Automatic annotation (TrEMBL):
Keywords: Membrane, Signal, Transmembrane, Transmembrane helix. InterPro entries: CLCR, VWF_A, vWFA_dom_sf. PANTHER family: CALCIUM-ACTIVATED CHLORIDE CHANNEL REGULATOR (PTHR10579), ZINC FINGER (C3HC4-TYPE RING FINGER) FAMILY PROTEIN (PTHR10579:SF43). It comes from the Bacteria. The chain crosses the membrane at residues 402-427. Residues 1-28 form the signal peptide. The keyword Magnesium does not apply. This is VWFA domain-containing protein. Residues 38-227 form the VWFA domain. The lineage of its organism: Bacteria, Bacillati, Actinomycetota, Actinomycetes, Micromonosporales. SMART domains: VWA.
Length: 433
């Protein structure tokens, strides 16, 4: 879910799996959302928003005007909602204050007048229950299968932990692949920045800081516009297993899963004799980890023999680790035959070679810090592609090599004789003169 790209580069499957043997493979197909993308703006209205340090005005005044401009410029198909936190309870009872979050505009086609009136009444008041507000915002957006986006705008870190907003973001991301949280910090300090980066990273979102009204307006508008355009491909959700026997059989495509620290997850892929497997994996490091870590992608035969591996490792700050591999039966015929024999599938009743079923294993050598939770697992994106095998040209045989040496020897002999005759003729001519 790096710096290497968050997103990481993956290949989309091009070859169908109708001819694969065994159980029907999981398919990662491009799907259309059931309804337009949905987005909810979550605005911090806690007491700190009274600070007058943005262009000489209060943070809340700048945020209100930015919201109004965004509402006026909304794309027609946008399903927008607005939720606030810390907006109503002025007291000191933290138990009550940390439940202070309300949806002031329901998610749906926006009535601009209604939205502006709701925003105009906001006054900086209480605490900052970001974790709870994120949970409620996810409930507001529902789970209709469409792309969902939360845009969190705050000037400070959560003051109501638990629940920890980073843990909430990871839990929300683990529930599906269609929810993204983008975060915007209004003149944020370092602690706030780290928390907002953690929230956005956990869900594949973005973080930005705004120190002026124009920056805030532009950034919110950009995020809302982006939410209105669904991504072209949504990875299919798949669950790897602890061994190869019961692992899901994957067709070409892009998949998403979750892997815990030091866990091994197994998948299966069937490769035809004339095909080459190309696979890659990316793991998003959405929490603090100890230095010196790595990710391993390995292809093995069903009897456990390793065929090929790809590995990536890091020590400093990284957002994503990626590894890839390629394998074809044509390049490793001995391994393919042995694997097929182990699976009793090296030939059909007509004596023709059938597919080789491989195990793909994704594992990691991560170690968490004392404060990092193990669950939910870190986001994994797995890419599977099957292409025509690249046949290596045949090398010259032993006979061809000797023939080449013989031709060189004869050519050298002829050249030597000619050189001798020419030299003798030149010497004889020189003496006569």
């Amino acid at each position: 879910m790096i710096h290497k790209s968050l997103s990481i580069v993956v290949a989309t499957g091009l070859i169908g799996a109708a001819t694969l043997l065994g159980a029907a493979p999981a398919n990662a197909r491009e799907t259309e959302p059931s309804e337009p993308p949905r987005v909810e703006l979550v605005l911090d209205v806690s007491g700190s928003m009274r600070a007058a340090d943005i262009d000489g005005e209060t943070r809340i005044a700048v945020a209100k005007r930015a919201f109004n401009k965004v509402v006026d410029a909304l794309p027609e198909n946008t399903q927008l909602g607005i939720r606030v936190l810390g907006a109503t309870y002025p007291g000191k009872n933290k138990k009550i204050a940390c439940k202070d979050t309300q949806q002031i505009v329901p998610v749906g086609p926006v009535n601009a007048v209604q939205a502006k009136n709701a925003i105009a009444t906001l006054k900086p008041t209480g605490y900052t229950p970001i974790g709870l507000a994120l949970k409620k915002a996810a409930e507001d957006l529902g789970d209709t299968g469409s792309v969902r986006r939360i845009v969190l705008i705050t000037d400070g870190e959560d003051t109501c932990t638990p629940p920890d907003p980073c843990e909430v973001a990871r839990e929300l991301a683990a529930q599906g692949t269609h929810l993204v949280v983008d975060t915007l910090g209004l003149t944020p300090d370092e602690k706030t920045r780290k928390q907002l980066v953690c929230i956005s990273t956990a869900t594949g979102g973005t973080y930005a800081a705004a120190k002026s009204e124009q920056e805030l307006t532009d950034r919110v508008q950009q995020l809302v516009d982006r939410a209105a355009v669904p991504p072209p491909v949504q990875p299919a959700v798949v669950t790897g297993t602890a061994d190869c026997t019961n692992a899901p059989l994957l067709a070409p495509g892009v998949y998403t899963d979750r892997e815990k620290i030091s866990e091994h997850r197994y998948y299966r892929v069937a490769v035809q004799p004339d095909q080459e497997l190309r696979a890659s994996v990316s793991i998003s490091l959405d929490r603090a980890l100890n230095p010196d870590y790595g990710v391993l992608l390995k292809a093995a035969s069903k009897d456990g023999r390793e065929l090929v591996r790809g590995v990536d490792a890091g020590s400093g700050r990284a957002d994503v680790l990626s590894a890839g591999l390629r394998w074809s039966a044509d390049e490793q015929k001995a391994d393919a035959r042995a694997s097929a024999e182990a699976a009793d599938s090296d030939a059909d009743e007509h004596g023709e070679t059938t597919s080789t079923e491989l195990c793909l294993i994704v594992s990691n050598s991560f170690a968490s810090t004392a404060t990092a939770a193990d669950a939910p697992g870190m986001p994994v994106e797995l890419s599977i592609d099957l292409v025509d095998a690249s046949h290596a040209p045949d090398a010259p045989g032993l006979g061809r090599g000797f023939l080449f040496l013989l031709v060189l020897a004869i050519a050298g002999l002829v050249a030597g004789v000619l050189a001798g005759w020419i030299t003798r003729y030149w010497v004889a001519t020189w003496r006569e003169n």
